[in-house]
Input
Amino acid sequence: MQISVLRAAVSISELLFFPQVVTEVICTLSFSLFLCCLIRLQFSNVISDFTYL
Output
């Protein structure tokens, strides 16, 4: 009886904790993608400036 209650508590806590982890991972991935796009834009601007020179 005690083990099943413990398992239920663990599964409930996993269910509560899992979406937070997923949202954190998604936010981190999207933020890094955003940073990569910004850096690429900056680099392309710098390269175009050099080609203008």
